[in-house]
Structure formats: C-alpha cells, structure tokens
Amino acid sequence: MGDHDRNDLLSGIRVLDLTQYLSGPCCTRMMAELGADVIKVELAPGGDPARGLPAIRNGRSAYFVQQNRGKRSLCVDLSDPTALDLIRRLAGEVDVVVENFGPGVVERKGLTYDVLAADRPDLIVVSITGFGREGCRSDKVAFDLVGQAYAGLMHMTGDRDGPPYFVSAAIADQTTGLHAFAAISTALFSRSRTGRGQHIELSLVDSLYWMHEVNVQAASVDGSDPVRAGRDHPAVSPAGTFRSPEGWIVVLCLERQWPALCEALGRPDLVTDPDFATPAERVANRPALNALIEAWMATFRTDAEILEVLDRCRVPNSPVLTPKATLTDPYFVERGMVRTISDPIVGDFVAPGFPFRFTDRPDGPGTNPELWAPMLGQHNAEVLGELLGLDRAEIARLEERGVLQHADH
Length: 409
Description:
about 400 residues; alpha/beta; 17 helices; Rossmann fold
C-alpha cells in the first residue's frame, strides 16, 4: 500500500483500476507513483495474469511488482452478481475508473460508462481496447504485437528484403497507457472547471498509428508505400547504425553536421567531394559513405575513443546500449532512471524510474520506499470497509461465498 498522506501531485484522487497485464496497469502505476489512491480490482481466482510473468524470484513476479507498486488489491469473482454490485458501488466512491476488458465484457457485466456514471456525472471512465469499442474491428482480440502489426509499424521495422520485425518492448501497451494518463489528467482539469466527468476511449492500434510522423502522410501525398530501410534512415545519409570495434554506434548527420563529420573522419576533402557534397548525393552514394565511416571506426581500439571524437566534433551519436549496460551507465544513474525497487518477497531489483521531473518533487515521483505491490486480495477488508462501510462480519460472509478471495499473506 502506498503512503496516501504525502503531499503528492495526485493526492486526493482515487482510482478504481479494472485492468490487467500492461496497458492499464502502467497508466495507473504512474498515478499511484504521483500519490493517487489506486484500488486494483483483480479477478478471482488468480488475479492479474501478470503475477505469473517473468522475471520470477521467490515465486513472485518482478514484472507485476514494477507495474503495480503503491496500489491496493481487491480480488472478486465477477461471475457473481454480488461482486458486480460491489464494483458499481465502488465506482460511486472514486474519481476515475480505468478498464481494459476484452470486447463485449463491460456490456455483459453491466459496467458500461452509462451504468457507472448514472449517479455520478463527475465520474471519469477510461476504456482501453485493442481496436476500439465500436466499429468493424472492435471484436478482434488484441495484444501488443497485434497493435504493432495492424498500425503499420511492424512493416517499417527490419531489413528491406527481410521479414517485418516487432519492437522488443511493449510499445503499443505502454504508449496507450501513457496516452490514457494524459487523457485522465486532461479530463480531471476539465472537471475542475465544469464539474463534469466523461468517458475516454483509447485503442492500442490508434495509439501506435498516431506515431507515424511521416509514413502515412507520404503515402497520401505522393502515393508511395514506405518500406523497411534496415539499419539506415531512408531519407538521410549518413544516418544509421555502424559496426564498431566493440559493437554498434549510431551516427546521424544532417546538412549542418556534414562538415563536422568530415572533420571527425579526418577527411575535410569530403565536404566538397561531388559524390557526397549534397544530401541527395549522400543518400544516392550511401554504401560508399557507410563503408568510409566503418573503415574509420575500425582504426580505433575501443568504442569510447570513437564516441569521444564524434562528441568533440559535435556529431550526433550514441552507442547501442544493451539493457544490462544501462544499469550502470552514468546518464541513467544521474537522472534517477535506474531505480532500485525493494519488495518484501522479490527483494531488491532495478526498474526504470519516472520519466517526468517536477519542481515539487525534486526526488522524483515514485521514490517513496513504501510503494509496495499488493498481495492478491490483500486489501479486501480495508477497501470495502473504508469506502462502502462493510463490517468484518459482512466481509467474512462474502469470503465464505467466494465473492471475495485472497492469497495467504
């Protein structure tokens, strides 16, 4: 349970979190780390399936802990009408409801916005789906990879003549979760002025499709069908990944950086070389230019030496870091992005820190060590007693009937 008495940015906001896996939990995780009271409703008997996802230590999932720190767990059997009634009553006691049920579930369970907000016109309800709640694809089951494929991003990832690849991070889920967080913040601001809540609907596919900064417009403007470009940027050269003594280095050189790159290479003559003098010529002669850069890199013993020269000449660059390398990289450490999470069962492990910086929270949101992820159903009695006024005897009867369930704590 998080410390909800702290003067955090979202203190006083209560959230009923009817989500599982990632798209919803990463949204409500951010709210919990900012001080909101997040009540995580888990479905009996096993709760959020993320409780079983790797990495596992001592029988507990670090994945689950990372996304559910600071939340309170209420575990109910939603096949029981009494449990559904409890959820509807709880919706009347919160500011925000977030759900990412599959197609048709909220309609069958009577948990639609119209039902939940019937007596609470200031309630904000967020629905996260794969393909939207209505429309020709609304019945499709979707996970992150499905979103990447349908939104056209997977088509753009990989070698030109090879198969499409997915990004090895859940960008559909987490982008949608971040969009949901922004939408909730906007709706809360609107409510502060109008007194009215509203229904917010997001889809994984829409969130990823929105990320096309050029591909969709290009297909519309000139009729082209953008294709995969592999390790090179399709419109800029040099711009891509280059083989280095110890791995790979990214170099990106726009027109104004071209003389600087020539200086770094020790080849000032290339500035006016007719094969490379203009951006168009550098794209047309990309193979030769890439070969020059990789031959130059091969003259160094370490990647650090190459990066030092590129930085000195102000050429945009980066090593291609592995996730393990980020754990000790000074940038991530200094920024507080390498965050140690302490869990009573998993123990200490590292997860990414909070990406926002606030002057009111110079230590960074989510740094409170008391933000623990809950055990299954750990807060059944606490939540129902606090919000609905149920006494111990009533809660015991619900547990005997299986309406409420919990793991041994």
